Amino acid sequence: MALDEREEPGFPDEVLTLIRKAQSSDPDAAEAETELVRRYLPLVRSLARPLYLAGWEAEDFLQEGTLGLIKAIRTYDSARSPYFGAYAKTCVYRKLCQAVERNSRKKNVPEEDLLPLDESSETLSDPTELPIDEIVIYRDEMERLVAEIRKTLSPFEDRVLTSYLEGYSFDEMAVRLKSGKKAVQNAMYRIRTKSEKIRPAP
User: Fold this and answer.
1) Domain check: are 91 and 45 in the same one?
2) If pLDDT is split at 50, 70 and 90, which confidence band does 126 have?
3) 3-state SS track over the chain
4) Does 83 share its domain with 122?
């Protein structure tokens, strides 16, 4: 399940200690960074997965989102951002927006379906100084899409979607929902099919 920095055990002390170690020249810096990636990977997964409903293969974007998370770890400044989780979410959103734009151009998606991005965005290094318009657009569009899709789902499909967006694997969803893995996979297929009838936004 995606982490919330306000609910995370040990924040800020434990997480801040790991971040400082990851940013240092300490021999254990790489190990600290790996541990932070492990802890926050569910956050990346939860932010990337709505893209599946938007017609993309969300798992393809996990690497991009993880790069955003690593960037957050390496550039985080507790004096400027009180919670690492919020800062990390901004960095991940940014990378996902950039990835969507690049892939949209490759797929020659109609211009009206593209998420707008600042042309200079790739050259800017500090996510806290970046315009957030495209991040808000991405977040709001994904939330709108999910809300519209939910209106078409059966109770079981709705529970599957909730678990999927929270970052659970198919095996974990099967256990959580007390159902077979195949039933969960079939439900996700139906959800994807229904989402195709909703896109693009009117």
Assistant:
1) yes
2) very low
3) CCCCCCCCCCCCHHHHHHHHHHHCCCCCHHHHHHHHHHHHHHHHHHHHCHHHHCCCCHHHHHHHHHHHHHHHHHHCCCCCCCCHHHHHHHHHHHHHHHHHHHHHHHHCCCHHHCCCCCCCHHHCCCHHHCCCHHHHHHHHHHHHHHHHHHCCCCHHHHHHHHHHHCCCCHHHHHHHCCCCHHHHHHHHHHHHHHHHCCCCCC
4) yes
Judgement on whether residues 24 and 117 belong to the same structural domain of the protein: yes
User: What is the percent of the chain where pLDDT is above 90?
Assistant: 33
Domain carrying residue 122: 13-128
Q: In terms of domains, do 167 and 101 share one?
A: no
The pLDDT-based confidence of 101 (bands split at 50, 70, 90) is confident
48 vs 2: CA distance, rounded Å: 11
Q: How far apart are CA 92 and CA 176, in angstroms?
A: 27
CATH number of the CATH domain containing 122: 1.10.1740.10
Distance CA 99, CA 26 (A): 32
- Residue 61 CB coordination number (10 Å): 23
| pTM for this predicted structure | 0.66
